[in-house]
Structure formats: C-alpha cells, structure tokens
C-alpha cells in the first residue's frame, strides 16, 4: 500500500524523498557545470539527516555539508561515505575524530589551521581542509587582513604533507546582486592570493541556494544548496517553489483531536484573543509551539481539513491550537494538514512563515522532536 494513503497518525511530518531527489537533480542541472553540495545541517533542516543525505546523493549531489563535526560523524555512523564538509567548530575541538573519518573541515582562523595540522600529525594522515575567507558577511571566516598569512602557512603545511587544501570558500550576505558581486570579487582576490602562495584548491565555492539561483556567476566550481534541496524558496519575496521548479518535501499533518459547536461570543484559547463572531464549530489540532508551530501565527496561520482552509482561532498553545471551521463537516480523527506542497492546495511553510513574521527556514527547522518523521519512498 502507498503510505500516502495510510490513515495519518496523531502528529507527523511526512518527508517525500522523491521530492528531495527531484529537487537536487533539478538544481544540479541548473548550476551545471558546477557541482552540488547538499547542506544537511540541523538534521537536514528538520527533515532527517541520513535519509535526506542518501536521497540527495542519489539525486546527483557530490558533496554533503553540515555545520558541526558531530553532524558529519553521524552521517559516517549511518554508513554514508560521500565527501562531507563541516565548517563551524567548538573552540576546544581537537579534530582527531573528524580526520580519522575523512571529514573535510572548514578553516576560519590560523589557530584552527594549526590545530587541524596537529590533529593530522597525530592521525598520521593529511587533513582535508577548505579555507573560509570572510568576504563581507562578518560572521565567520579568515579576516581579509590575515588571508596572506593564512595561505602562506597552508602552503607550508601542505608541502609537509600534513594538510591538503581541497577548497577555498566564502558565504554571501544575499543583500543584493551588487553586494553579492562585490563579495565574489573579494573572494576571487583571495583565490589569486592563494594561487600566488602555491595553494590551488580542487573546488572554489561561494553560493548557497539564493546566490546559485539569482547570481549565476557566483556558482564557481560548487554550490552549497540547503533550502532548495527541501523544495523551499530561499528568497522570502513571494517567489514560490513551483516558480523555481522545486517541490516542498515536508508535509506537516495530524488528526483532529476534538470538535465542538460554540455560541456566538465564546472565547477561545488563552487570553480570549478570539471570540466566535457567530455560532460556529471549532476543531482542535494537536500541534503547538513545542512542536514548532509559531505562537506568533496565532489568529493568522491556516490549515486544510477535508480540502477546505481554516484559520487558527486564538492563541497557539504549547501542544495544540483551535481552528474555526465554520459550518464545515469536520469530525474527530479527520486529517489536518498544516503545510506541504501548495500545488496540492495546502498552505506552504512560507505561508506559516508569513503568518509568524519569519522565514520558511525557521518553520521547517523548528519542528520539534515530538513529531515523528516518516520518510516516503516512491511507491
Ligand atoms: C546553511 C548554509 C548553507 C545553505 O544555505 P541555504 O540558503 O539553505 O541554501 C550554505 N553555506 C553555509 C556556510 C551555510 O551555513
């Protein structure tokens, strides 16, 4: 039986792995000849790191990207052998485990470079490194004033066989195409400085989803795609997934836990911020802010029950919220879809983001641990 048609559980995030594969294949075709690193940090943006990583590799990604070394090691523990890059490190990290497991490491300071070279010496194998140049985001990365010293030291360590500089990279602020091009120019200055020092990386990478889609010259050798893998638009300007040829992979759903008919004027949920404007029917949805439903979407978010849209009535609570279903025929146990692929007539994660004054990234990454993830394969 197609699991799509199995009665939905109480709460569930369904992850369509075909959508992941199709999104990566579409993005890979779009950015070719650049290759794709699928970014699966933060448990693949809440979608489940190992199954998403496998699907992304099947879809044509050559690399995986994560923030923390522990996330990279979890992929290795799951049997995933593809190249993986981790770029955000504990100040006391020793890097031995990462090097032993052939995890590539982003380098944001000369101190990190030295610590990684020391760990490589202990491990008896060279560390695969990607020097991260701060080109203007002012978040992480080697400061421009230290680029020359860093590439000179990297060249010396490479000559000693302790490290291999596999990559040079930076990250865009996505402020405007003009700002992005300024960062690209700064980055290419850094690449030239590295070459003068004798450091020639296999891959130069700068763009994440937004840059890869909007500023093609930032694609270089490799693009690091996160949100696009999950079928969500990176822009927050009303561009839809369908506009980009993408399909949202996550559907968040549950079952109506209670139904009641109320009189006009009945207050609903904490603080009575909403009162029934007429006699109506209320349905209880068993997901709340502990499950990542933003309290800021109180009174604004929408769900679909039985093919019809209904709005949150009153405040989102920790475990539940109420929707006003009017005269719709809604029963306890009915499926309620909070978001999914808007092509199916349901709200998108971006609709919830708009309702809460945030971005789709925050909606999917914050779905809580109480919501089981179900990974769908092609039937
Ligand atoms: C999260 C992240 C990405 C992916 O960004 P998206 O906008 O989700 O594509 C790429 N590179 C770095 C350094 C990141 O931290």
Protein model, in words:
- With 379 residues, the chain is α/β, with parallel strands linked by helices.
- 30% of the residues lie in helices and 23% in strands.
- The chain folds into two domains: 3-11 and 249-376, Lyase, Ornithine Decarboxylase, Chain A, domain 1; 33-231, Alanine racemase (TIM Barrel).
- The protein has helices spanning 17-31, 41-46, 49-59, 69-77, 96-100, 110-123, 147-159, 177-196, 209-214, 349-356, 360-365; strands at 11-16, 35-39, 63-66, 84-86, 104-107, 127-132, 163-169, 203-205, 222-225, 250-255, 258-262, 267-268, 274-275, 280-285, 302-305, 308-313, 321-326, 335-339, 373-376.
- The strands form three sheets. Strands 11-14-17-16-15-18-10-1-19 form a nine-stranded mixed beta sheet.
- Strand 3, helix 4 (69-77) and strand 4 form a beta-alpha-beta unit.
- It is elongated, with a radius of gyration of 24 Å.
- Pyridoxal-5'-phosphate is lined by residues 39, 41, 87, 171, 208-210, 224-228, 234.
- Catalyzes the interconversion of L-alanine and D-alanine. May also act on other amino acids.
- Residues 249-376 form the Alanine racemase C-terminal domain.
- The modification N6-(pyridoxal phosphate)lysine is found at residue 41.
